[in-house]
Amino acid sequence: DSSLWRxxxxxxxxxxxxxEDHLDSLSxxxxxxxxxxVDSVQRWMDDLKLMTDCECMCILQSKPISIExxxxxxxxxxSQYSTCDNLQLLLKRAWIINTELTRIAQKLEKNRWQRVHxxxxxxxxxxxxxxxxxxxxxGNSSEEMQQFEKLLIDKCSEFTAFTERCxxxxxxxxxxxxxxxxxxxxxxxxxxxGQLIELVLTHEAQNLLRQIDLSDSLYSTESAISxxxxxxxxxxxxxxxxxxxxxxxxxxxxxxxxxxxxxxxxTLRTLASICSVEEGMHQLEKxxxxxxxxxxxxxxxxxxxxxAEAAAVIAQITSPHLTFTQHLSSFLENMEExxxxxVQLCQEASSGEVFLLASAALANITFFDxxxxxxxxxxxAMKILLAxxxxxHIVDTPYSRDQVVTILANMSVLDQCASEIIQGxxxxxxxxxxxxxxxxxxxxxxxxxxRVQQKSAVTLARLSRHPEVADExxxxxxxxxxxxxxxxxxxxxxSDSVLVACLVALRRLAVMSPDGLEDSDFQQLxxxxxxxxxxxxxxxxxxxx
Length: 545
Fold this sequence. Notes:
This protein is mainly α and 545 residues long. The protein is built from 27 helices and no strands. α10 packs antiparallel against α11, α15 packs antiparallel against α16 (352-368) and α19 (398-411) runs parallel beside α22 (443-463). It is flat. The two termini are 55 Å apart.
């Protein structure tokens, strides 16, 4: 369903991303922490059940409550809960325990023994509750898991006993000598807890991958892939676990079977998440993933959704801020086919989301290898991108314009680019981008607008070496706008990178048209060294008269 697919990408459009050479591009690493990025009241409401469970367990000394079979009990996970729901509950409990351990360390530093003891009891109960919850939906745990559970419970009991002795004595020397023992025990508890969680998550990843490998039905495979995707959304560490357990190879195996075509979008979305970590990238190379992505992108029988998700994976693995892309030798071998398919996807995109993913991949590729710009020029990509910008239904956000202007900036180093820019009214577009402002005030959108302003100024500066482009920019009153951006911090949202780009562009245009500047502008913004003009503008107070 197209609307469902679009909603899955909402978080991608609401992110700000950075690249190299002051020309930021979009990376699609889709890591997020559900437990933190929520309203504080909602966070409290979510935690309330867990905290009250904990207090009940304290009173009953961690003994389970006997219930009749037909009664409902909040402490028992309903059978209709999915694996993802159960894992979310486990991760919430783990997050609370981790937070409590951190707070215990803080209270211990301040010698607040009563608080340390009460929090230790609470952690002890949380650990037991977490184990009971996990075992209730997994059945019999492995021998290794049981050993870790026993070790952790023993350490928690030892920890509680230590702190209880502390509140029963008032002798400062005794407390001082016990403090180091408590610190060591706290560290041991934290390490055991971390190892247990690592083992649990690895076990869950193995189960899902085993389900994918052994499944002979679409429903079962889809359920396992969905579970893997939800795991990847919990952070880079889980992506590393999945990659190490063979997740990339298993998912590309799905993408090579026609019987699973309807699952390609979901599978590729999961791959994009896993490939945000180095382990995922190495596994992609071993699985010959670039060739598989190339086949999908160049196969016109696939749906637009599938092509868009393949573009998202390409955008991820070519992200300019990743430092582990050098080993993707196979990418260069298939780059021309990939770029051609992405340009076609931009041209035929039916929505802003599809265009964003395809243009983000192209933007990243222009950082990845210079040859990509020459290929784009041969494919008339400049004309296609400029035409797309005139369609407000396709290029409908600052994020999309950020990708377009990134491509233009990187292509502007080519001499043949100038004529393409003029023919496609590209200078007019760059002028409009200098006025880019956020309509919502959202911090990510504001940052995207800053990047659009910066890159449009960079592109103008680079293209101004061509007299025809400089003349067109001057006719469109680019000089007054650049001066305004330099002198008015609010126009550039106090961005230093926008200021530097505008100063450089202004100086390039001033060479072509020195009469276009007033003497004060020339003396302050053009004549001095760049650093002096920069310091002058950053210290300039805006006049409200």
